[in-house]
Amino acid sequence: MNVFLKRLLIIAIALAVIAPAIYYAITLNNANQRQSDPLYYAPSDTNVLGYVNYNGTHFYVYANNRSYGLIFDTSSLSNVNFSRISSLMHGNGMNGSTFNSSSNFTSKTNISLYADYKDYSIYVIRNLSFAFIGLSITNQTLYLYESNGFIVLGNLNGIYESINATLSSRNAIGYSGYLNSSANVSMAVFNVGNKIVKSVYFNLTGNNLTGSIRFLNYTYESYFLSAISNMKGAKIISVHDFNVKFKLDIRSLISAYDLMGVLNAQ
Amino acid sequence: MISWVSSMPNKFSVAFSYYFKNYYRSKSFYLMLALIIIISGIMSYFSFRYQSKINTFLDRFDSTTITTSLKSRALDYIWSFVLVDIPVYAAVFFGSPSISSEIEDRTAFHIFSLPVGRMTILSAKYAAAYAATVLISLIYIILEAIITIRIYGTIDMSSYLLSLMLTLIFIASVLAFTFFISSIFNRNIYAYITVLIIYFLVFNAVDVITSLLYSTTSPFLLNNAANIIMEVFVNINLFTFSPTISLSPASASKIFLAVAVMIIYLVASLAAATVLFENKEAK
Predict the structure, then answer these.
(1) ipTM of model
(2) Confidence of residue A11 (pLDDT cuts 50, 70, 90)
(3) Which residue of A has its CA nearest to B61?
(4) Beta strand A197-205 with A110-117: parallel, antiparallel or unpaired?
(5) In the A/B pair of chains, how many CB contacts fall below 8 A?
(6) B256: nearest CB among A28, A76, A94
(7) How far is it, in rounded angstroms, from Cα A147 to Cα A166?
(8) What is the 3-state secondary structure (H, E, C) of A135-147?
């Protein structure tokens, strides 16, 4: 066989194998990377999406009118004991367990297998009590499941919707631009369906809160503008149509009560 | 044409048996054999001596979930941690001098004048080097199973066989890569050093940079794809700045990705080595 043809044949065969293999590898890698995004586990029809970074522990929150959930990345948790939850997913003896974490979970929490749903095992945590950033929850029953190193904790609807979101690709990854992961708290509220606001976004870093509210009409926008201009430590950055951007020092949060008082009065 | 095609397997088997004999009679083979026996001995000793350490590690998770099967998978993970580097050294010994030595030792004069196609020579040499590397690695892999069963009375056979299959693919891939490097040089020493530098220095440097910048390891590097050999037991990735720990085996998509990467290296390297070998001139 002609040497040139032989070389050509070798290169052609190699390309015929390598090209689809590269395409397949890139597709798989993109899918894996999407799975390593915490918002992959939040449903797309969520109304509230948040990110909290507190003392090195960070998690995402999602909620709508029927469901809510918290998404933890086990590798990001400062206290390795929390990964005991993860270990529960892969062994037998689900009857009971205890775990402690940086989030002050009680040591008498019972965790057990609740149901298998679409290849995922859902666990129920009974008598869950914990305190986190001043929020105290006692004797609650919550559900959780683990996937790809992420733990989703929430009410039962929240868990079902999270699993469905991962399987149908109707997840909240598209909303990631609304959240600022360098802030301590970043929150986005949208499509709430009330008559006052269309969306609310805010980021809290240290004591500085920056926010943006899009109102549905001028009446409520003017109420808000007059209220916030009376608040100590608050500053309006811009007003554009129904959209108001503002800054706030939360040390003067007492002013929030003033704001509520003013709003009520109006 | 028909006689040429029908004589190909015969020529290949003759060349294969010749090269395979050459490999297992070589000093490199006995050196690797001695190394593998020493490594296997050390691993066996540590497995018995520090068996309790596995329990201590797993205690960080939850006592109710520590089953014998999980312990055996954790032990196999540790054995595979060492296993992922064995084919690399074996491939460096058997693959790096495969083509360059023919030029350096001036044996190319005789080989190239034989009525055997260069592709047949290269494929027979590759198959012989693959057989020698698999033989060396199998000693360690079989001992891994024996020790695991001896200690825990059980072994997760599906994970073990999957790991074995992935090891065989990885050996093919890393060996093809060393053949490609060997086809570039006319001196063995350059081929040896280049393979070691690329695999242990360049790949790791790229890995450190991607870990630092993007908090993830690059799945398209051969050394990272090789980690799947151990991650099919327990999915722990200790090679990033934020290690992830999951006691479940690696997901199917992760396994397919690693296999795809290995196949890309295998085919690209073999094709490049074949083209370069066809162009080689005896000096």
Answers:
(1) 0.81
(2) very high
(3) A84
(4) unpaired
(5) 106
(6) A28
(7) 10
(8) EEEEEEEEEEEEE
